């Protein structure tokens, strides 16, 4: 076991949820290929998250983590990514206003493809096949061939993650996360959903706060913190 953290120290810990890759050579080639690619997350982004989590630990911020249990290769569209981000932003606005502290938003996105399993195999009728471990490993189709772990899926997951992150960065820096826009979504939710009526008072209070800030000369156009996520 490693006593101090290094970029590779995770490799010294036991991995209890690894699939049984049938072709070690193919796995090694996929891992080597991914290792040659640019990082998905940059050092500055990691440091920013570390600082934000420090604020959460100190009680000065609230952590919101949301997203899929496991991402899918079959549902990879710009619309799906946008709508997941939209819901996270809507929740964050309500939490930030209600708690009075910043909400640190963490998405289970752009890499959340694996599924842990309690057993290596499962029975479908009389057929025993490898368990579905997420699209990064095998296919959910209940056949023996589809369930064989395929290391090419690791590379596909990298490319999908990179595309997802690029789109998310464009959204959060390009005005999609603008506070006025997110508040309008919440108002729509309150007006069109029976569940949303519980948040009607919060939406009204946020509207009043936005009007006050605008009257003071603070708006989403001249304040980056209100325009970006």
Total of DSSP H or I helical runs spanning 4+ residues:
8
Provide the low-confidence segments as ranges: none
Distance between the termini: 38 Å
CA radius of gyration is 22 Å
Q: Give the helices and strands as they follow along the chain.
A: HHEHEEEHHHHH
Average pLDDT confidence is 89
Helix content: 40-55%
The total beta strand count reads: 4
Fold blueprint:
Blueprint: H1 24-35, H2 43-57, E1 62-67, H3 78-99, E2 103-108, E3 121-124, E4 127-130, H4 144-147, H5 152-173, H6 179-192, H7 200-215, H8 224-227
Parallel strand pairs: 1-2
Antiparallel strand pairs: 3-4
Helix pairs in contact: 1-5, 3-5, 3-6, 6-7
Could you explain the architecture of this structure?
By secondary structure, the protein is mainly alpha-helical. It folds into 2 domains: 23-113 and 150-173, no CATH class; 177-229, no CATH class. 48% of the residues lie in helices and 9% in strands. It has 8 helices and 4 strands. The strands form 2 sheets. Strands 1-2 form a two-stranded parallel ribbon. It has a two-stranded antiparallel sheet with strand order 3-4. A hairpin with a 2-residue loop joins strand 3 (121-124) and strand 4. Helix 3 (78-99) crosses helix 5 (152-173), helix 3 crosses helix 6 (179-192) and helix 6 runs antiparallel to helix 7. 16% of the residues are buried. The model has no long low-confidence stretch (mean pLDDT 89).
């Amino acid at each position: 076991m490693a006593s101090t953290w290094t970029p590779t120290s995770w490799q010294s810990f036991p991995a209890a949820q690894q699939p049984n890759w049938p072709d070690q050579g193919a796995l090694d080639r996929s891992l080597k290929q991914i290792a040659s690619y640019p990082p998905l997350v940059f050092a500055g982004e990691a440091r920013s998250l570390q600082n934000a989590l420090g604020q959460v630990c100190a009680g000065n911020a609230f952590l919101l983590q949301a997203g899929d249990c496991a991402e899918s290769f079959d549902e990879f569209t710009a619309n799906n990514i946008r709508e997941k981000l939209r819901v996270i932003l809507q929740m964050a606005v309500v939490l930030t206003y209600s708690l009075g502290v910043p909400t640190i938003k963490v998405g289970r996105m752009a890499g959340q493809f694996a599924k842990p399993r309690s057993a290596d195999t499962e029975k479908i009728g009389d057929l025993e096949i490898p368990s579905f471990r997420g699209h990064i490993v095998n296919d959910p189709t209940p056949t023996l061939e589809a369930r064989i772990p395929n290391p090419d899926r690791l590379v596909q997951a990298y490319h999908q993650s990179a595309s997802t992150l690029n789109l998310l960065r464009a959204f959060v820096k390009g005005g999609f996360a603008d506070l006025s826009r997110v508040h309008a979504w919440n108002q729509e939710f309150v007006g069109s959903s029976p569940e949303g009526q519980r948040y009607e008072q919060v939406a009204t209070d946020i509207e009043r706060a936005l009007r006050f800030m605008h009257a003071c000369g603070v708006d989403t156009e001249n304040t980056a913190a209100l325009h970006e996520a």
